[in-house]
Amino acid sequence: MQKDPAILSLTDLATLIILTAAAFAHGALGFGFPLLATPLLALVMDLRMAILLTLIPTILINLVSIAHERHWREALRRFWPLPVSTMIGSLISTQLLLSIDPQPFQILLALVLVAFLLLERRRGTGPERQVPHWALALLGLSMGLLAGLINIFAPVVVAFALYTRMNPALMVATFNLSFITSKSGQVLGFASRDALDPEVLGLALILLPAVLLALWIGIRVRRRHGGASYRNWLRGALWAIAVLLIIEAW
């Protein structure tokens, strides 16, 4: 996957702004980096390049999250089919992303954003439901397929949390593990097709200090003021991005 250096030079500033804004949102809310960064980047560049640019920051952000998570061992013991099948699904769908024109996936990306926004406001109540391992594996496979194609599987996470009513802390740990394995599948998929473009990865590394600084600032803001108001801003931004993606793809 080769890119035109002139195009990259025109998108450097936009990429910096998008990645740092998404990192700040993730820090302020506790989630949201690929959810915000991927569709914004897809508005200014090829979807495959957008996904590749977010790989390194997303892996690092989720490793930091897991390192500070006390429930990851229990999550791995109880829900291990999810991260395993997520990696398989993302590996498969990354191959598809690299084989055909990714432009139609912008519509899928917009629809997934809308699904997330509609589901995110719902709340599940009642006792936790148990899910068999085979169902977890199918769920993880669907998450991985979405991750490989559009870099986002948040609506599946929200729907699963609503159905099972699982403990929020355990849910965060489980899906942080799944985010990491989905990224592993994407890396393997890009590598198997010799599509790990060193220039794109180099840009991601150059911008990484700014991304981590924005993440740190967002975390400090959340600790001082909470994230409720920023959640409303994120909802508004995602609705606007979904509309723009549909218009551009049309």
Automatic annotation (TrEMBL):
Q: What is the protein's major site of localization?
A: membrane
One Pfam family this sequence matches: TauE
Listed InterPro entries: TM_pro_TauE-like (IPR002781), TSUP (IPR052017)
Q: Does the keyword Transport apply?
A: yes
**What does the UniProt keyword field contain?**
Cell membrane, Membrane, Transmembrane, Transmembrane helix, Transport
Indicate how the chain sits in the lipid bilayer. Answer: Multi-pass membrane protein
Enumerate the transmembrane spans: 12-37, 49-67, 79-98, 104-122, 134-163, 200-221, 233-249
Q: What PANTHER family does the record tag this protein with? A: MEMBRANE TRANSPORTER PROTEIN-RELATED, TRANSMEMBRANE PROTEIN YFCA
Report what the protein is called: Probable membrane transporter protein
